[in-house]
Amino acid sequence: MHQAAVAERRNNIAPIPFEADAPFLKIVGELPRELNGTLYRNGPNPQFDSPGAHWFVGDGMLHAFHLKNGRASYRNRWIRTPKWLAEHDAGRALFGGFGRKLPDASVNLTDGGVANTNIIFHAGKLLALEEAHLPTEIEPGSLATRGYHNYHGRVAGSFTAHPKIDPVTGELVFFGYNAAGPLTPALSYGSIDASGKTTRFERFEAPYASMVHDFIVTANHVLFPILPITGSMERAMSGRPPYAWEPDKGAYVGVMTRSGTAKDIVWFRGEACYVFHVMNAWEDGDRIVADVMQFEEAPLFPHPDGRPTDPEKSRARHCRWTFDLSGNTDRFQQTYLDDLTGEFPRIDDRHAGLKSRHGWYACANPKLPMFGALSGLVHVDGNGRRLGHYLLPAGDTISEPVFVERSKDAAEGDGWLLAVVWRARENRSDLAVFNATDIEAGPAALVQLGHRVPDGFHGNWVGAV
Ligand SMILES: [Fe+2]
Protein backbone atom coordinates (compact mmCIF):
# COMPACT_ATOMS: atom_id res chain seq x y z
CA MET A 1 0.00 0.00 0.00
CA HIS A 2 1.16 3.55 -0.73
CA GLN A 3 2.60 5.41 2.25
CA ALA A 4 0.30 8.37 1.51
CA ALA A 5 -2.77 6.16 1.85
CA VAL A 6 -1.47 4.82 5.16
CA ALA A 7 -0.82 8.31 6.44
CA GLU A 8 -4.37 9.38 5.64
CA ARG A 9 -5.91 6.49 7.49
CA ARG A 10 -4.80 7.24 11.02
CA ASN A 11 -7.61 5.52 12.84
CA ASN A 12 -10.13 2.74 12.59
CA ILE A 13 -13.29 4.57 13.62
CA ALA A 14 -15.18 4.80 10.30
CA PRO A 15 -18.05 2.32 9.85
CA ILE A 16 -18.01 -0.60 7.43
CA PRO A 17 -20.93 -0.63 4.99
CA PHE A 18 -21.75 -4.34 4.84
CA GLU A 19 -22.82 -7.51 6.65
CA ALA A 20 -20.90 -10.70 5.91
CA ASP A 21 -20.43 -14.37 6.68
CA ALA A 22 -16.91 -15.75 6.46
CA PRO A 23 -16.97 -19.48 7.12
CA PHE A 24 -13.35 -20.60 6.69
CA LEU A 25 -10.90 -18.07 8.02
CA LYS A 26 -7.16 -18.33 7.59
CA ILE A 27 -5.32 -19.01 10.83
CA VAL A 28 -1.69 -18.17 11.51
CA GLY A 29 -0.25 -20.27 14.31
CA GLU A 30 -2.39 -22.80 16.10
CA LEU A 31 -5.81 -22.01 17.52
CA PRO A 32 -6.16 -23.82 20.88
CA ARG A 33 -8.61 -26.70 20.50
CA GLU A 34 -10.06 -25.98 23.95
CA LEU A 35 -11.48 -22.72 22.57
CA ASN A 36 -14.98 -23.85 21.66
CA GLY A 37 -17.51 -21.05 21.57
CA THR A 38 -18.08 -17.56 20.27
CA LEU A 39 -16.50 -14.19 20.97
CA TYR A 40 -19.19 -11.54 20.51
CA ARG A 41 -18.15 -7.91 20.15
CA ASN A 42 -20.24 -4.74 19.90
CA GLY A 43 -19.49 -1.19 18.78
CA PRO A 44 -20.78 1.85 16.89
CA ASN A 45 -21.15 1.48 13.13
CA PRO A 46 -23.55 4.17 11.85
CA GLN A 47 -25.77 2.97 9.02
CA PHE A 48 -25.92 6.53 7.62
CA ASP A 49 -23.77 9.63 8.05
CA SER A 50 -25.43 12.01 10.47
CA PRO A 51 -24.21 15.59 10.87
CA GLY A 52 -22.84 16.22 14.36
CA ALA A 53 -23.62 12.76 15.70
CA HIS A 54 -21.23 11.77 18.51
CA TRP A 55 -19.26 8.58 17.81
CA PHE A 56 -20.88 7.15 20.96
CA VAL A 57 -24.33 7.08 19.34
CA GLY A 58 -23.59 5.15 16.13
CA ASP A 59 -25.80 2.12 15.41
CA GLY A 60 -24.56 -1.02 17.11
CA MET A 61 -22.94 -3.69 14.96
CA LEU A 62 -22.15 -7.13 16.31
CA HIS A 63 -19.09 -9.10 15.27
CA ALA A 64 -19.10 -12.80 16.18
CA PHE A 65 -16.02 -15.02 15.96
CA HIS A 66 -17.04 -18.64 16.26
CA LEU A 67 -14.17 -20.96 17.21
CA LYS A 68 -14.37 -24.75 17.13
CA ASN A 69 -11.81 -27.55 16.88
CA GLY A 70 -9.04 -25.20 15.82
CA ARG A 71 -11.13 -23.59 13.06
CA ALA A 72 -12.77 -20.17 12.97
CA SER A 73 -15.68 -18.44 11.24
CA TYR A 74 -17.05 -14.90 11.42
CA ARG A 75 -20.38 -13.14 11.07
CA ASN A 76 -21.33 -9.48 11.50
CA ARG A 77 -24.79 -7.92 11.68
CA TRP A 78 -26.24 -4.55 12.52
CA ILE A 79 -28.60 -4.62 15.46
CA ARG A 80 -32.05 -3.84 14.07
CA THR A 81 -33.21 -1.32 16.67
CA PRO A 82 -36.37 0.74 16.00
CA LYS A 83 -34.01 3.59 14.98
CA TRP A 84 -32.05 1.37 12.57
CA LEU A 85 -35.27 0.06 10.95
CA ALA A 86 -36.80 3.55 10.58
CA GLU A 87 -33.61 4.94 9.05
CA HIS A 88 -33.29 1.89 6.80
CA ASP A 89 -36.83 2.54 5.49
CA ALA A 90 -36.13 6.24 5.08
CA GLY A 91 -32.76 5.63 3.41
CA ARG A 92 -31.13 8.34 5.55
CA ALA A 93 -30.20 9.40 9.09
CA LEU A 94 -33.12 10.54 11.26
CA PHE A 95 -31.16 11.12 14.47
CA GLY A 96 -28.09 13.22 15.25
CA GLY A 97 -26.21 14.69 18.22
CA PHE A 98 -26.69 12.63 21.34
CA GLY A 99 -29.49 10.48 19.92
CA ARG A 100 -31.77 13.47 19.21
CA LYS A 101 -34.11 13.36 16.27
CA LEU A 102 -33.08 15.62 13.38
CA PRO A 103 -35.46 18.60 12.88
CA ASP A 104 -36.51 17.51 9.39
CA ALA A 105 -37.06 13.84 10.30
CA SER A 106 -40.66 13.08 9.47
CA VAL A 107 -41.17 9.80 11.28
CA ASN A 108 -43.12 9.55 14.48
CA LEU A 109 -40.29 7.92 16.41
CA THR A 110 -38.70 9.03 19.65
CA ASP A 111 -36.60 5.98 20.46
CA GLY A 112 -33.02 6.66 19.38
CA GLY A 113 -31.60 3.52 21.05
CA VAL A 114 -28.55 2.08 19.30
CA ALA A 115 -27.72 -1.04 21.43
CA ASN A 116 -24.04 -0.46 20.62
CA THR A 117 -21.98 -0.87 23.80
CA ASN A 118 -21.79 -4.39 25.17
CA ILE A 119 -23.06 -7.90 24.53
CA ILE A 120 -23.59 -10.30 27.43
CA PHE A 121 -25.07 -13.75 27.96
CA HIS A 122 -27.23 -14.29 31.05
CA ALA A 123 -30.07 -16.69 31.94
CA GLY A 124 -30.01 -18.20 28.44
CA LYS A 125 -30.30 -14.87 26.65
CA LEU A 126 -27.80 -12.97 24.52
CA LEU A 127 -28.35 -9.26 25.20
CA ALA A 128 -26.94 -6.22 23.41
CA LEU A 129 -26.65 -3.32 25.85
CA GLU A 130 -26.48 0.47 25.63
CA GLU A 131 -26.95 2.49 28.79
CA ALA A 132 -29.90 4.69 27.80
CA HIS A 133 -32.27 1.86 26.86
CA LEU A 134 -33.45 -1.62 27.78
CA PRO A 135 -31.39 -4.65 26.67
CA THR A 136 -31.97 -5.86 23.10
CA GLU A 137 -32.22 -9.62 22.73
CA ILE A 138 -30.15 -11.20 19.96
CA GLU A 139 -30.43 -14.70 18.45
CA PRO A 140 -26.98 -16.20 19.24
CA GLY A 141 -26.41 -18.06 15.95
CA SER A 142 -27.91 -15.83 13.26
CA LEU A 143 -27.37 -12.55 15.21
CA ALA A 144 -30.96 -11.66 14.32
CA THR A 145 -32.51 -8.96 16.52
CA ARG A 146 -35.42 -10.16 18.65
CA GLY A 147 -36.23 -6.75 20.18
CA TYR A 148 -36.19 -5.13 23.60
CA HIS A 149 -36.23 -7.42 26.63
CA ASN A 150 -38.01 -5.98 29.70
CA TYR A 151 -38.09 -9.05 31.96
CA HIS A 152 -41.88 -9.54 31.69
CA GLY A 153 -42.48 -5.85 32.29
CA ARG A 154 -40.58 -5.81 35.59
CA VAL A 155 -37.74 -3.58 34.34
CA ALA A 156 -38.16 -0.19 32.66
CA GLY A 157 -36.06 2.73 31.49
CA SER A 158 -32.31 2.88 31.13
CA PHE A 159 -30.15 -0.18 31.81
CA THR A 160 -26.37 -0.02 32.17
CA ALA A 161 -24.08 -1.58 29.56
CA HIS A 162 -22.01 -2.86 32.51
CA PRO A 163 -24.17 -5.10 34.69
CA LYS A 164 -22.23 -7.59 36.84
CA ILE A 165 -22.82 -11.33 37.02
CA ASP A 166 -22.16 -12.76 40.48
CA PRO A 167 -19.91 -15.78 39.84
CA VAL A 168 -21.25 -17.60 42.92
CA THR A 169 -25.01 -17.10 42.58
CA GLY A 170 -25.31 -16.37 38.85
CA GLU A 171 -27.33 -13.26 39.75
CA LEU A 172 -27.14 -10.29 37.38
CA VAL A 173 -26.94 -6.94 39.18
CA PHE A 174 -27.64 -3.75 37.23
CA PHE A 175 -28.46 -0.05 37.50
CA GLY A 176 -29.67 2.72 35.22
CA TYR A 177 -29.03 6.46 35.25
CA ASN A 178 -31.41 9.18 33.99
CA ALA A 179 -33.96 6.82 35.54
CA ALA A 180 -36.61 9.57 35.87
CA GLY A 181 -36.02 10.89 32.35
CA PRO A 182 -33.17 12.54 30.43
CA LEU A 183 -30.63 14.49 32.54
CA THR A 184 -32.26 13.70 35.89
CA PRO A 185 -30.36 12.66 39.04
CA ALA A 186 -32.46 9.49 39.52
CA LEU A 187 -30.79 6.07 39.45
CA SER A 188 -32.45 2.66 39.24
CA TYR A 189 -31.05 -0.50 40.76
CA GLY A 190 -32.11 -4.07 40.24
CA SER A 191 -31.22 -7.73 40.05
CA ILE A 192 -32.17 -10.71 37.92
CA ASP A 193 -31.59 -14.22 39.27
CA ALA A 194 -29.79 -17.00 37.41
CA SER A 195 -33.08 -18.22 35.93
CA GLY A 196 -33.91 -14.79 34.48
CA LYS A 197 -36.46 -13.76 37.13
CA THR A 198 -36.46 -10.15 38.36
CA THR A 199 -35.80 -10.15 42.10
CA ARG A 200 -35.52 -6.43 42.65
CA PHE A 201 -36.10 -3.10 40.87
CA GLU A 202 -36.18 0.29 42.57
CA ARG A 203 -35.20 3.93 42.11
CA PHE A 204 -33.38 6.51 44.20
CA GLU A 205 -31.85 10.01 43.94
CA ALA A 206 -28.11 10.61 43.41
CA PRO A 207 -26.38 13.83 44.62
CA TYR A 208 -26.53 15.31 41.10
CA ALA A 209 -27.29 14.32 37.49
CA SER A 210 -24.25 12.75 35.88
CA MET A 211 -23.16 10.24 33.28
CA VAL A 212 -22.77 6.92 35.12
CA HIS A 213 -21.20 4.42 32.78
CA ASP A 214 -20.16 1.64 35.17
CA PHE A 215 -20.56 0.68 38.83
CA ILE A 216 -19.01 -1.58 41.44
CA VAL A 217 -20.31 -4.84 42.87
CA THR A 218 -18.68 -7.05 45.51
CA ALA A 219 -20.00 -10.17 47.26
CA ASN A 220 -22.07 -8.08 49.71
CA HIS A 221 -22.01 -4.49 48.47
CA VAL A 222 -22.92 -2.35 45.51
CA LEU A 223 -21.28 1.03 44.88
CA PHE A 224 -22.61 3.84 42.68
CA PRO A 225 -19.98 6.35 41.43
CA ILE A 226 -21.40 9.84 40.81
CA LEU A 227 -18.56 11.65 39.04
CA PRO A 228 -18.65 15.15 37.59
CA ILE A 229 -19.50 14.67 33.95
CA THR A 230 -22.74 16.38 34.85
CA GLY A 231 -26.01 16.32 32.94
CA SER A 232 -28.03 19.53 32.65
CA MET A 233 -31.36 20.03 30.93
CA GLU A 234 -30.94 23.79 31.34
CA ARG A 235 -27.68 23.67 29.36
CA ALA A 236 -29.20 21.39 26.74
CA MET A 237 -32.22 23.69 26.28
CA SER A 238 -29.94 26.70 25.74
CA GLY A 239 -27.84 24.93 23.11
CA ARG A 240 -24.88 24.25 25.40
CA PRO A 241 -23.41 20.79 26.11
CA PRO A 242 -25.95 18.48 27.81
CA TYR A 243 -22.98 16.71 29.46
CA ALA A 244 -19.99 18.68 30.70
CA TRP A 245 -16.97 18.42 33.01
CA GLU A 246 -17.72 20.23 36.32
CA PRO A 247 -14.99 19.21 38.78
CA ASP A 248 -16.31 21.60 41.46
CA LYS A 249 -19.20 19.21 42.04
CA GLY A 250 -16.72 16.68 43.43
CA ALA A 251 -16.78 12.89 43.34
CA TYR A 252 -19.34 10.87 45.29
CA VAL A 253 -19.55 7.11 45.63
CA GLY A 254 -22.65 5.64 47.27
CA VAL A 255 -22.10 2.38 49.16
CA MET A 256 -25.09 0.11 49.76
CA THR A 257 -25.29 -3.44 51.07
CA ARG A 258 -26.77 -5.78 48.49
CA SER A 259 -29.36 -6.88 51.06
CA GLY A 260 -30.11 -3.26 52.07
CA THR A 261 -32.18 -0.53 50.49
CA ALA A 262 -31.37 2.77 48.87
CA LYS A 263 -32.18 4.74 52.03
CA ASP A 264 -29.19 3.01 53.69
CA ILE A 265 -26.71 4.28 51.08
CA VAL A 266 -23.62 5.90 52.62
CA TRP A 267 -22.07 8.55 50.37
CA PHE A 268 -18.25 8.78 50.32
CA ARG A 269 -16.45 11.80 48.88
CA GLY A 270 -13.25 11.95 46.83
CA GLU A 271 -11.16 14.07 44.45
CA ALA A 272 -12.93 14.99 41.20
CA CYS A 273 -12.15 12.43 38.50
CA TYR A 274 -13.93 10.37 35.89
CA VAL A 275 -14.10 6.61 35.45
CA PHE A 276 -15.66 4.80 32.55
CA HIS A 277 -14.61 1.32 33.60
CA VAL A 278 -14.07 -0.74 36.71
CA MET A 279 -11.62 -3.66 36.62
CA ASN A 280 -12.78 -5.45 39.77
CA ALA A 281 -13.59 -4.87 43.44
CA TRP A 282 -13.67 -6.95 46.61
CA GLU A 283 -14.11 -6.80 50.35
CA ASP A 284 -11.09 -6.89 52.65
CA GLY A 285 -12.25 -6.88 56.28
CA ASP A 286 -13.82 -3.45 56.93
CA ARG A 287 -12.61 -2.11 53.61
CA ILE A 288 -13.78 -2.26 50.03
CA VAL A 289 -11.05 -2.18 47.40
CA ALA A 290 -12.02 -1.19 43.86
CA ASP A 291 -9.59 -1.05 40.93
CA VAL A 292 -10.69 1.35 38.21
CA MET A 293 -9.29 3.18 35.18
CA GLN A 294 -9.34 6.77 36.46
CA PHE A 295 -9.15 9.97 34.38
CA GLU A 296 -7.92 13.10 36.17
CA GLU A 297 -10.16 15.16 33.86
CA ALA A 298 -13.00 13.90 31.71
CA PRO A 299 -12.13 12.86 28.16
CA LEU A 300 -14.50 13.37 25.21
CA PHE A 301 -16.70 15.89 27.06
CA PRO A 302 -16.08 19.67 27.33
CA HIS A 303 -16.32 22.24 30.11
CA PRO A 304 -19.85 23.77 30.42
CA ASP A 305 -18.82 26.65 28.12
CA GLY A 306 -17.67 24.24 25.43
CA ARG A 307 -13.91 24.50 26.06
CA PRO A 308 -12.18 21.10 25.76
CA THR A 309 -10.56 19.50 28.81
CA ASP A 310 -6.76 19.19 29.11
CA PRO A 311 -5.58 16.28 26.90
CA GLU A 312 -2.66 15.63 29.28
CA LYS A 313 -5.11 15.01 32.10
CA SER A 314 -7.86 13.30 30.14
CA ARG A 315 -6.20 9.90 30.01
CA ALA A 316 -7.01 6.91 32.17
CA ARG A 317 -4.63 5.09 34.49
CA HIS A 318 -5.05 2.05 36.67
CA CYS A 319 -6.10 3.39 40.07
CA ARG A 320 -7.13 1.86 43.39
CA TRP A 321 -10.08 3.20 45.36
CA THR A 322 -10.32 2.22 49.02
CA PHE A 323 -13.39 2.68 51.21
CA ASP A 324 -13.23 2.39 55.00
CA LEU A 325 -16.58 1.00 56.16
CA SER A 326 -15.78 1.26 59.87
CA GLY A 327 -17.23 4.78 60.02
CA ASN A 328 -13.97 6.65 60.62
CA THR A 329 -14.14 8.77 57.49
CA ASP A 330 -16.44 9.65 54.63
CA ARG A 331 -13.47 10.16 52.27
CA PHE A 332 -12.31 7.39 49.95
CA GLN A 333 -8.66 7.01 48.93
CA GLN A 334 -7.57 7.17 45.27
CA THR A 335 -4.08 5.81 44.50
CA TYR A 336 -2.68 5.37 41.01
CA LEU A 337 -1.08 1.96 40.55
CA ASP A 338 0.64 2.69 37.23
CA ASP A 339 1.41 5.68 35.00
CA LEU A 340 0.59 3.92 31.75
CA THR A 341 -2.41 5.18 29.76
CA GLY A 342 -4.95 2.38 29.54
CA GLU A 343 -8.61 1.44 29.21
CA PHE A 344 -10.95 -1.54 28.89
CA PRO A 345 -9.86 -3.45 32.03
CA ARG A 346 -10.96 -7.07 32.35
CA ILE A 347 -10.44 -9.96 34.74
CA ASP A 348 -11.07 -13.67 34.90
CA ASP A 349 -14.82 -13.20 35.45
CA ARG A 350 -14.97 -16.19 37.79
CA HIS A 351 -13.49 -13.73 40.34
CA ALA A 352 -15.92 -10.84 39.74
CA GLY A 353 -16.55 -9.11 43.09
CA LEU A 354 -13.97 -11.35 44.78
CA LYS A 355 -10.27 -10.86 45.41
CA SER A 356 -8.51 -11.30 42.05
CA ARG A 357 -4.84 -11.82 41.28
CA HIS A 358 -4.91 -11.26 37.54
CA GLY A 359 -6.17 -8.41 35.41
CA TRP A 360 -5.62 -7.18 31.87
CA TYR A 361 -6.23 -3.93 30.02
CA ALA A 362 -5.51 -2.30 26.69
CA CYS A 363 -2.80 0.37 26.83
CA ALA A 364 -1.32 3.13 24.73
CA ASN A 365 2.24 3.03 23.46
CA PRO A 366 4.05 5.73 25.50
CA LYS A 367 6.22 6.52 22.48
CA LEU A 368 3.28 7.30 20.17
CA PRO A 369 0.69 10.10 20.18
CA MET A 370 -1.97 8.95 22.58
CA PHE A 371 -5.58 9.50 21.93
CA GLY A 372 -7.61 6.82 20.23
CA ALA A 373 -4.56 4.66 19.99
CA LEU A 374 -4.85 1.74 22.33
CA SER A 375 -2.12 -0.37 20.85
CA GLY A 376 -0.92 -2.80 23.48
CA LEU A 377 -1.90 -5.02 26.38
CA VAL A 378 -0.92 -5.15 30.03
CA HIS A 379 -1.23 -8.08 32.40
CA VAL A 380 -1.23 -7.10 36.08
CA ASP A 381 -1.33 -8.90 39.41
CA GLY A 382 -3.86 -8.19 42.18
CA ASN A 383 -2.02 -5.00 43.13
CA GLY A 384 -1.62 -3.53 39.66
CA ARG A 385 2.00 -4.60 39.23
CA ARG A 386 2.83 -5.42 35.63
CA LEU A 387 3.36 -9.13 34.96
CA GLY A 388 3.50 -8.70 31.20
CA HIS A 389 3.32 -6.02 28.55
CA TYR A 390 2.88 -6.34 24.79
CA LEU A 391 2.94 -3.59 22.17
CA LEU A 392 1.64 -3.94 18.62
CA PRO A 393 3.59 -2.66 15.61
CA ALA A 394 3.29 1.16 15.41
CA GLY A 395 -0.04 2.25 13.92
CA ASP A 396 -2.02 -0.89 14.76
CA THR A 397 -4.79 -0.68 17.37
CA ILE A 398 -6.32 -3.20 19.76
CA SER A 399 -9.75 -3.77 21.30
CA GLU A 400 -10.70 -4.70 24.85
CA PRO A 401 -9.03 -8.01 25.82
CA VAL A 402 -11.46 -10.77 26.84
CA PHE A 403 -10.28 -13.59 29.09
CA VAL A 404 -11.34 -17.20 28.45
CA GLU A 405 -10.45 -19.85 31.02
CA ARG A 406 -8.73 -23.05 29.82
CA SER A 407 -11.39 -25.16 31.52
CA LYS A 408 -14.09 -24.67 34.16
CA ASP A 409 -11.77 -25.63 37.03
CA ALA A 410 -8.56 -24.07 35.67
CA ALA A 411 -6.66 -21.81 38.10
CA GLU A 412 -7.41 -18.07 37.98
CA GLY A 413 -5.73 -16.55 34.93
CA ASP A 414 -5.01 -19.89 33.24
CA GLY A 415 -6.39 -19.49 29.75
CA TRP A 416 -6.38 -17.12 26.81
CA LEU A 417 -6.85 -13.48 26.08
CA LEU A 418 -8.82 -12.64 22.93
CA ALA A 419 -8.56 -9.21 21.31
CA VAL A 420 -9.37 -7.84 17.87
CA VAL A 421 -6.42 -6.05 16.31
CA TRP A 422 -6.52 -3.55 13.44
CA ARG A 423 -3.59 -3.87 11.06
CA ALA A 424 -3.14 -0.28 9.89
CA ARG A 425 -0.92 -1.03 6.89
CA GLU A 426 -3.23 -3.69 5.50
CA ASN A 427 -6.41 -1.94 6.75
CA ARG A 428 -7.96 -5.19 7.99
CA SER A 429 -8.36 -6.95 11.32
CA ASP A 430 -7.17 -10.08 13.10
CA LEU A 431 -8.59 -11.87 16.09
CA ALA A 432 -5.46 -12.31 18.23
CA VAL A 433 -5.31 -15.14 20.76
CA PHE A 434 -2.73 -14.70 23.53
CA ASN A 435 -1.70 -17.02 26.30
CA ALA A 436 -3.19 -14.94 29.15
CA THR A 437 -0.22 -15.44 31.49
CA ASP A 438 2.39 -14.82 28.78
CA ILE A 439 1.15 -11.93 26.65
CA GLU A 440 4.72 -10.75 26.20
CA ALA A 441 5.28 -13.69 23.79
CA GLY A 442 2.74 -12.09 21.41
CA PRO A 443 -0.28 -13.84 19.90
CA ALA A 444 -0.20 -17.64 19.89
CA ALA A 445 -2.66 -17.56 17.01
CA LEU A 446 -4.16 -15.02 14.63
CA VAL A 447 -7.51 -15.46 12.92
CA GLN A 448 -7.26 -13.30 9.82
CA LEU A 449 -10.16 -11.33 8.39
CA GLY A 450 -10.08 -9.85 4.90
CA HIS A 451 -11.80 -6.69 6.17
CA ARG A 452 -11.50 -4.45 9.21
CA VAL A 453 -13.57 -4.47 12.38
CA PRO A 454 -13.96 -0.82 13.45
CA ASP A 455 -12.64 -0.01 16.95
CA GLY A 456 -15.56 -0.80 19.22
CA PHE A 457 -16.49 -1.02 22.86
CA HIS A 458 -17.05 -4.34 24.62
CA GLY A 459 -17.38 -8.04 24.04
CA ASN A 460 -17.75 -11.34 25.82
CA TRP A 461 -17.04 -15.00 25.24
CA VAL A 462 -19.87 -17.51 25.30
CA GLY A 463 -18.58 -21.07 25.56
CA ALA A 464 -20.25 -23.89 23.64
CA VAL A 465 -22.41 -26.06 25.89
FE1 LIG B 1 -18.02 0.67 28.65
Automatic annotation (TrEMBL):
Cofactor requirement: Fe(2+)
GO biological process: carotene catabolic process
One Pfam family of this chain: RPE65
InterPro entries per record: Carotenoid_Oase (IPR004294)
Broad class of enzyme this protein falls into: oxidoreductase
E.C. numbers: 1.13.11.-
GO molecular function ontology, one term from the record: metal ion binding
Listed transmembrane segments: none
Keywords recorded for this protein, A-Z: Dioxygenase, Iron, Metal-binding, Oxidoreductase
Cofactor binding comment, as recorded: Binds 1 Fe(2+) ion per subunit.
Superkingdom, taxonomy of origin: Bacteria
Residues that bind Fe cation: H162, H213, H277, H458
Similarity field: Belongs to the carotenoid oxygenase family.
Designated name of the protein: Dioxygenase
